[in-house]
Amino acid sequence: MDVRRLDLLRELAERGTVHAVAEATHRTPSAVSQQLKVLEREAGLPLTERRGRGLVLTDAGRALAASATDVAVAIERATSVWDEYRNRPIGTVTVATFPTFGQMVVPAVLRTLEAVPGLRVVVSDRDPDLEDFPDLAADFDIVIAQAISGERNWVRRGLRITQLLSEPLDVVLPVGHRLSGQTVLTPADLADESWIGVPVGYPLDRLLSSIEAESGGELRVVQRVSDNRIAEAMVAAGLGIGLLPRYTASGPERGIVLRPLAGLDATRRIVALSRPDRAERLAVRTVLDAIRVEAQSVAASHTAPEPEELTTPRWV
């Protein structure tokens, strides 16, 4: 069987439609369909079947698509061994990240990798509310993903998962707030507060719902913004309190203070996702190692925020 046709079958399994496969592989849909028919004749079994206006894989097609992944991994592993002998992690590595991780990790990684000849890293930012991080792995070598509760469907997608860091999500208060003198806050402390929230559906919005359920009070969301700097400015102005990731949040110099939240799992877990064949490339492993090292360095440089000594409260 032709490896290139096997790869088209695998792309269909990953992307779901012939049209999507055609776009990703720079072919016409008819050319993709033609190649799949040739592969089907070579296999001697039906690999796809018509469902509505589209094609879906048969059981035999899904089995062969899984085998195509194994073939792709083996090819990339062999290429990687040769690159290691030559000590040449060359080529372009594409990375998709959400903004706050890009802010705290990516610049230092790019600076470090400038010293590697022949290696080019191309970074794209994606919205933090994205649920389908695994889908991006079809188009990017490394996808930086976040979740507040577990790994979602990442494991079931057959992707390589590299743990990068666990980052606390702290309550952000204006300087002088009545709660800023406490070492740790609980949901009960936050009952009946006004909040600067995030758009509905964002991971942090679900955490706000959990705080409300635990506190027994109503959390009034007075504004919803997706940009953390805008949220910080609103909190500093005394318009409400909020939640922010600890490592990229500002501090008293911007008119805000952070306090840890107890009683809930207020942590976002950040991982890197890759297709298993792409994860074998020496260039991809080189970039991923640099990302992991920098992420660990960022985590090690942060400690829990200290309580504020209150004199004259500004906000009550």
Characteristics:
Arc Repressor Mutant, subunit A; D-Maltodextrin-Binding Protein, domain 2; 316 residues; 7-stranded mixed beta sheet; two-stranded antiparallel ribbon
Mind explaining what this structure looks like?
There is one protein chain. The chain has eleven helices and eleven strands. With 316 residues, it is of the alpha/beta class. Strands 3, 4, 5, 6, 9, 10 and 11 form a seven-stranded mixed sheet that branches. Strands 1-2 form a two-stranded antiparallel ribbon. It has a two-stranded parallel ribbon with strand order 7-8. The protein has three domains: 3-82, Arc Repressor Mutant, subunit A (Orthogonal Bundle), CATH 1.10.10; 87-166 and 268-300, Periplasmic binding protein-like II (D-Maltodextrin-Binding Protein, domain 2), CATH 3.40.190.10; 167-259, D-Maltodextrin-Binding Protein, domain 2, CATH 3.40.190. Strand 1 (48-51) and strand 2 (54-57) form a beta hairpin. Pfam families: HTH_1, LysR_substrate. Keywords: DNA-binding, Transcription, Transcription regulation. Residues 1-58 form the HTH lysR-type domain.
